[in-house]
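Structure, all two chains, one model.
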Amino acid sequence: MKNITIGQYYPTDSVIHRLDPRVKLFGTIVFLVSLFLTDHYLGYAVITVCLAAVLKLSKVPFKMLLKGLRGILILLLFSVVFNIFLVPGRELVHIWFLSITAEGIRRAIFLGIRLVYLVIGTSLMTLTTTPTDLADGLEKALRPLNKLHIPVHDITMMMSIALRFIPILMEETDKIMMAQKARGADFETGGLLKRAKALIPLFVPLFVSAIRRAIDLANAMETRCYQGGEGRTKMHPLCYQKRDKRTYCIYAGYLIAIFGINRILVAFQILPFLFA
Amino acid sequence: MAIELQHVSYTYSQDTVYEMHALEDVNLKIGDNECIGIIGHTGSGKSTLIQHMNGLVKATEGAILYNGKNIYDSDFALPSLRRRVGLVFQYPEYQLFESDVFSDVCFGPKNLGLSEDEIRARAKKALEQVGIPESLYDKSPFLLSGGQKRRVAIAGVLAMEPEILILDEPTAGLDPRGRDAILTLIRDLYEKRKITVIFVSHSMEDVARYVERLIVLDHGHVIYDDVPKAVFAHYKELEQIGLRAPQITYAIDRLQAYGLRTSQIVTTVAEAKNAVLEWFAQ
């Protein structure tokens, strides 16, 4: 439970923390696009350097990110192993009915890098942005969608409430778990069915409490005259600073570099040689 | 000697930015048939301390002995400790989950692997002890009043028949009648069933009236551990850590300016009444 880093905030003061949330959201998208556009080692080297630089600037300890990776370990293993064995191509090793191909290994390595960087990149955004800022940024960035009658404010409000409640519900789970353990409940031993049954004394109170909290929150919001996004003003309106504009320029440079490397490698037919 | 804490320290979120020392070098001996109160400012480590006593939380440093055996030894059976040391959490009504009151109270004894008859007998006894009438046995626990839910939840722990019962702020959020009922129940368990009862409280009046030994925590340290009267004699120091003496102590204190004399510090209304009557008689 404590290994989930997506949605967790790491409080410290860094250049990255101070950036406008919209800049970070956009940056994450740019980063994801670059990850999936790249298909060669040189490009990944550039991405790695950039990611390492951002990580260093954010002052988030690497250990925090590693914790987040633990959550996708199984998914990672599965996809890497499948790719190694199932991609057709030039055969390197043949064991019984399985064969390992050069293409398979390459594909597996790239997929592994993509998955790991994807988690690191998105975790980095949530670790450096408070949930409130994130929702604010999302709301402002998606405002044009209002024209299509998509209730942007309501959606972002729901999102920020959900994010806000993750730590509360986790604490609650911990508490209820301890209370039931004190009554002799056993969550750790037994077969699948027994363990699933053991969760009832945990889940029922948890749901009851989540619903109770939701009702309380709704009442609290209504007593403060909340009525959605219409005409609502902000205490801290988002406003681009000089550093935000500079960061956008860096994004442009980054994208050009990634595209450029891609084009050059293709144009000069270097790609095939690199993996020959 | 039932429970002994030796140099127990506990740190939350060790090695992160959220690191917090909840307990530091706590040494306590808790014997048989004691009635103990724990007081301390919010965040002083009271809840963390009592969660150590039945092994729910593992101390970062130090040892806890139950009847002389270290509970952190690999061959120590923690479930048997949890049976003997019953822990009632803050707002225990939030742990209710069964479809009716009676089955919820049965949950604890059922986990002990007792026979069906024994389970039912224990649940019935526990519910009687907390004063829940039989007409409520097959009601949903979620339909009861706050005070009734609290009592059902306490019955759930009592049904395990612990030798030591620990309660974390058992009277929080209850009306005066509900509070008195719970405190009387605690006192009864101590006097009639001869078990050790420990409870955390924010009410100086309650601890002055009901306990025989008072432990004061501040920032994870035990700063006083004595009979309530001796602890409340330090009320000036208590005020500095966000606590105080019972209100009646201050009232008697004021009256001393007018000539009231008491042989020892007054902490309960009954004592105050006697002191004032004596004063008038003179």
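Chain A has a mean pLDDT of 84.
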